[in-house]
């Protein structure tokens, strides 16, 4: 069996964009070591959620946490259940949200614990999620994308060509603000600034608008 490539992207509950690559080994999510994906949030248990490889993809189970794990608003217990592309994972009573995303065959994503030095998207765009740097054609973007601009780009990249909706973009760029506190115009303006920076340095990947839904990163 060829194990599918997939990622877990934290979209709420972390001050920085976190993406973990699933490479056929178990992934433990928790507040501190020995977790593979560490989320510094007081409501996350030391050992919170476990993702394991299965015959047709990946399975998720709660690792004995205090505040629980849900997938698409359905509680998950100690018995592993399968994950599907795009599933919304919430832990710690919704304090932390994550997306399970199956990667395209050409995507290589760096996790917070992977030894791979860089994250490469299609075209000439490279994103390093650990150092939060962006390179275009081998040249590091300077001044760098920071704050929500980087987080929005990371969100679009991790989607692997899938369109990201307004809520998902909001969670990535404004994790500390409620949904009703961020207008679409604010998201549009932030995306515009990211697009302008990438275009100005000859980036071949394009951020495309998806009418009535959100945005997508295209090769």
TrEMBL record:
GO MF assignments: DNA binding
Alphabetically ordered keywords of this record: DNA-binding
Superkingdom: Bacteria
UniProt-listed SUPFAM superfamilies: C-terminal effector domain of the bipartite response regulators, SMAD/FHA domain
Entries under SMART domains matching the protein: FHA (SM00240), Trans_reg_C (SM00862)
Residue span, FHA domain: 26-76
Record GO biological process: phosphorelay signal transduction system; regulation of DNA-templated transcription
Domain spans labelled OmpR/PhoB-type: 138-217
Alphabetical list of InterPro entries matching this protein: Cell_Proc_Reg/RNA_Proc, FHA_dom, OmpR/PhoB-type_DNA-bd, Sig_transdc_resp-reg_C-effctor, SMAD_FHA_dom_sf, WH-like_DNA-bd_sf
Name of the protein in its database record: FHA domain-containing protein
Species annotation: Candidatus Lucifugimonas marina
């Amino acid at each position: 069996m060829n194990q599918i490539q997939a990622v877990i992207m934290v979209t709420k509950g972390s001050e920085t964009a976190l993406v973990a690559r699933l490479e056929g080994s178990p992934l433990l999510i928790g507040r501190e070591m020995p977790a593979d994906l560490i989320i510094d949030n007081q409501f996350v248990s030391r050992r919170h959620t476990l993702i394991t490889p299965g015959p047709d993809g990946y399975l998720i189970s709660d690792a004995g946490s205090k505040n629980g794990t849900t997938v698409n608003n359905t509680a998950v217990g100690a018995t592993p259940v399968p994950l599907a592309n795009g599933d919304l994972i919430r832990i710690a009573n919704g304090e932390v949200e994550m997306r399970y995303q199956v990667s395209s065959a050409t995507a290589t994503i760096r996790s917070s614990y992977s030894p791979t030095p860089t994250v490469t998207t299609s075209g000439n765009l490279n994103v390093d999620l650990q150092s939060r740097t962006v390179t275009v054609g081998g040249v590091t973007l300077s001044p760098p994308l920071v704050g929500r601009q980087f987080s929005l780009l990371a969100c679009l990249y991790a989607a692997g060509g899938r369109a990201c909706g307004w809520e998902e973009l909001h969670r990535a760029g404004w994790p500390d603000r409620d949904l009703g506190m961020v207008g679409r115009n604010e998201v549009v303006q932030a995306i515009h600034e990211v697009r302008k920076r990438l275009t100005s340095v000859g980036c071949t990947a394009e951020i495309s608008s998806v009418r009535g839904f959100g945005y997508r990163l295209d090769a």
